[in-house]
């Protein structure tokens, strides 16, 4: 079974993000970029399925500027076999990504798509679900455990108040939650091998998809600065301030 | 060339850095406090390094090593420079001289070292012979098929951890056109051999790594444990010396970058007289100099590494990169500490340790004075009539 793992290039989780001065988005020039952490978990899960002999080939896909090749290389160093880069500058919306992935699925016929539940930049949490809808495939979102047996996948999902177990028929879309696994280090031999693994480059037009955004971002702004705290002398003063100044009790 | 290092080596740098940041750096404070790496932690890190392949990176693939080229090795060493050496050395890059192992030595010493089952230490320096390595007086005298070694080695790092010692000893004197010359031979000596005593020294730099004195008192070593040929110890050590000097400079780049990062963050956030101290030129120009000197060292390291790979590096070039890198990291850690002011000298932050650790870089792979001597002689020779 082939596995498809989409990986997104995002601002590294350690970076303190800054809003661009024109309010059109977040500054990404000269900022450290990395693979979306949830996608890293998805790659790890795919590599484990391959090690168990369930998967035969792992294809890492990234959609965005040419520099996304770096994130594909990281996936290749973790154990993916080859990469596909769909080059598109500027904003690429979840629906566009889902349509492009659908076209790639038509080309590659994977038995399973494993992807992050959401990207840490825009937190859309939409692409996996949209792709499942476009394909008419089953979906197991927010997966914290994945088991494949024959042509069925069992997914344990983290939901409010507990765990939900769902059984899906394959092919299916799985979106990875934080606790699905702990991604490995790319090992030295795999890093060296990754440099020689192939990456195919495509344009949205090659896949018959129009990447024009349908949404308009009106404004991006910093959250309001937190006010400094104050010390109070007594409980009575605290209650008074909560009641009369903050008006919360 | 890309100043950050050759483009296709980025992935390697990222890989080593994520290992260093996640598995090594978190233990720095503990190791510093104990002046030792607890055995359990040592084994745990070693196991992880072996599993990820960040072990014996510099050794040939045919023997199970990482098989890195010199530029690749330089990229990895920059990242290993970002952690205290006591922890960094657990990802052992065995002494390259071990590549001279032949026959049974390969299965007894080389391969087990690459697999992490054995540890070597490199014993050349003596109380009376540092930069002037030919001045060593440790003797190995033939006795049947064996040799009997007597003498003292000093400043031998990792001698506590090692289970065998690459020992340089005088095996005779030969006449050369330039006068008599000592025949120096390298031996593989098991540390458990009767007559060996290891005593740790208390030192300023690289706490937890332990620099030691090793004394040899009638230590019997079989002749088959000669590494290379009798009298050929320096011939096989020569290639090692160049790589040691280049990689030292690579480590200096990593340490300097880390120190600059902490200083720059501090300069951005520490407020004095109503503005962040980075807004004052006294602070900001220090950062400018650091960044520039680090960049220059990087370029020198990659130039030297490329020349090492194609075998064209000269002694002068190896000395130049060592000299510049070690003095650069001294200036950078000193200025970084200065930017942090009082906080710089507290043990709450790692700057004081960086500053102490940087100090030995100007000494241990050849002092700055020795490197200037080598470089200047070569310059004068170049322009002599």
TrEMBL record, chain A:
* InterPro entries cross-referenced by the UniProt entry: ET-Flavoprotein_bsu_CS, ETF_a/b_N, ETF_b, ETF_beta_N, Rossmann-like_a/b/a_fold
Q: Which cofactor does it need?
A: AMP
Protein origin, superkingdom: Bacteria
- Segments spanning the bilayer are none
Domain named Electron transfer flavoprotein alpha/beta-subunit N-terminal is located at: 23-211
Q: Name one GO biological process term.
A: carboxylic acid catabolic process
Q: Which family does it belong to?
A: Belongs to the ETF beta-subunit/FixA family.
What role is this protein assigned? The electron transfer flavoprotein serves as a specific electron acceptor for other dehydrogenases. It transfers the electrons to the main respiratory chain via ETF-ubiquinone oxidoreductase (ETF dehydrogenase).
Q: How does it assemble?
A: Heterodimer of an alpha and a beta subunit.
Q: What is this protein called?
A: Electron transfer flavoprotein subunit beta
TrEMBL record, chain B:
Q: Which residues form the Acyl-CoA dehydrogenase/oxidase C-terminal domain?
A: 231-379
Q: Which UniProt keywords apply?
A: FAD, Flavoprotein, Oxidoreductase
Q: Which cofactor does it need?
A: FAD
Q: What residue stretches are annotated with the Acyl-CoA oxidase/dehydrogenase middle domain?
A: 121-219
Q: Which domain of life does the UniProt lineage start with?
A: Bacteria
Residue limits of the Acyl-CoA dehydrogenase/oxidase N-terminal domain? 7-117
Q: Does the keyword Cell cycle apply?
A: no
Q: Which GO terms describe its molecular function?
A: acyl-CoA dehydrogenase activity; flavin adenine dinucleotide binding
Give the family from UniProt: Belongs to the acyl-CoA dehydrogenase family.
Q: What is the protein name given in its UniProt record?
A: Acyl-CoA dehydrogenase
Q: What is the lineage of its organism?
A: Bacteria, Pseudomonadati, Pseudomonadota, Alphaproteobacteria, Acetobacterales
């Amino acid at each position: 079974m082939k596995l498809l793992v989409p990986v997104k290039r995002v601002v590294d989780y350690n970076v303190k993000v800054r809003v661009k001065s024109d309010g059109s988005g977040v500054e990404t020039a000269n900022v450290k970029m990395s693979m979306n952490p949830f996608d890293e978990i998805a790659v790890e899960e795919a590599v484990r399925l391959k090690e168990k002999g369930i998967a035969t080939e792992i294809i890492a896909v990234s959609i965005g500027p040419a520099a996304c090749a770096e994130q594909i290389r990281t996936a290749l160093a973790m154990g993916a076999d080859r990469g596909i880069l769909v080059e598109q500058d500027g904003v690429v919306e979840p629906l566009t990504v889902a349509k492009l992935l659908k076209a790639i699925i038509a080309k590659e016929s994977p038995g399973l798509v494993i992807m992050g539940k959401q990207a840490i930049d825009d937190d859309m949490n939409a692409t996996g679900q949209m792709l499942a809808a476009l394909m008419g495939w089953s979906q197991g979102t927010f997966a914290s455990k994945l088991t494949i047996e024959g042509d069925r996948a069992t997914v344990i999902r983290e939901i409010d108040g507990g765990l939900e177990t769902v059984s899906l028929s394959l092919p299916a879309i799985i979106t990875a939650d934080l606790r699905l696994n702990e991604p490995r280090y790319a090992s030295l031999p795999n890093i060296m091998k990754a440099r020689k693994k192939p990456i195919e480059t495509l344009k949205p037009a090659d896949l018959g998809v129009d990447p024009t955004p349908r949404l308009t971002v009106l404004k991006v702004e910093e959250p309001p600065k937190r006010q400094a705290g104050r010390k109070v002398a007594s409980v009575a003063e605290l209650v008074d301030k909560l009641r009369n100044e903050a008006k919360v009790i | 060339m890309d100043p950050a290092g050759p483009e296709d080596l980025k992935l390697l740098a990222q890989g080593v850095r994520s290992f260093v940041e996640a598995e090594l750096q978190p233990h720095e404070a503990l190791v510093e406090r104990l002046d030792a790496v607890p055995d359990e932690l040592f084994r745990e890190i070693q196991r992880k390094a072996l599993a990820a392949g960040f072990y014996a990176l510099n050794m040939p693939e045919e023997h199970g090593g990482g098989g890195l080229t010199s530029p690749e090795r330089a990229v990895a060493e920059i990242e290993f420079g970002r952690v205290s050496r006591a922890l960094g050395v657990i990802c052992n890059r065995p002494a390259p001289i071990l590549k001279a192992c032949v026959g049974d030595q390969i299965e007894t010493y080389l391969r087990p070292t690459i697999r992490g089952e054995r540890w070597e230490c490199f014993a050349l320096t003596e109380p009376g012979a540092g930069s002037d390595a030919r001045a060593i007086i440790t003797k190995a005298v033939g006795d049947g098929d064996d040799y009997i070694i007597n003498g003292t080695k000093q400043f031998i790092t990792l001698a506590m951890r090692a289970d065998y010692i690459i020992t340089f000893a005088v095996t005779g004197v030969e006449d050369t056109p330039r006068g008599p010359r000592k025949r120096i031979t390298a031996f593989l000596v098991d540390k458990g051999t009767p007559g060996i005593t290891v005593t740790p020294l208390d030192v300023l730099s690289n706490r937890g790594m332990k620099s030691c004195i090793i004394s040899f008192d009638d230590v019997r070593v079989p002749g088959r444990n000669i590494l290379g040929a009798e009298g050929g110890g320096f011939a096989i050590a020569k290639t090692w010396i160049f790589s040691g000097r280049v990689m030292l400079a690579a480590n200096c780049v990593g340490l300097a970058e880390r120190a600059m990062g902490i200083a720059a963050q501090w300069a951005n956030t520490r407020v004095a007289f109503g503005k962040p101290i980075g807004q004052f030129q006294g602070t900001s120009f220090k950062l400018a100099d650091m960044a520039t000197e680090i960049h220059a060292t990087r370029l020198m390291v990659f130039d030297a590494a490329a020349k090492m790979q194609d075998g064209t590096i000269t002694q002068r070039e190896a000395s130049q990169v060592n000299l510049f890198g070690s003095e650069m990291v001294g200036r950078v850690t000193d200025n970084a500490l200065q930017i942090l002011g009082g906080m710089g000298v507290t043990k709450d932050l790692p700057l004081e340790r960086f500053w102490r650790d940087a100090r030995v870089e100007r000494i241990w792979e050849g002092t700055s004075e020795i490197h200037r001597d080598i470089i200047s002689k070569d310059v004068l020779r170049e322009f002599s009539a």
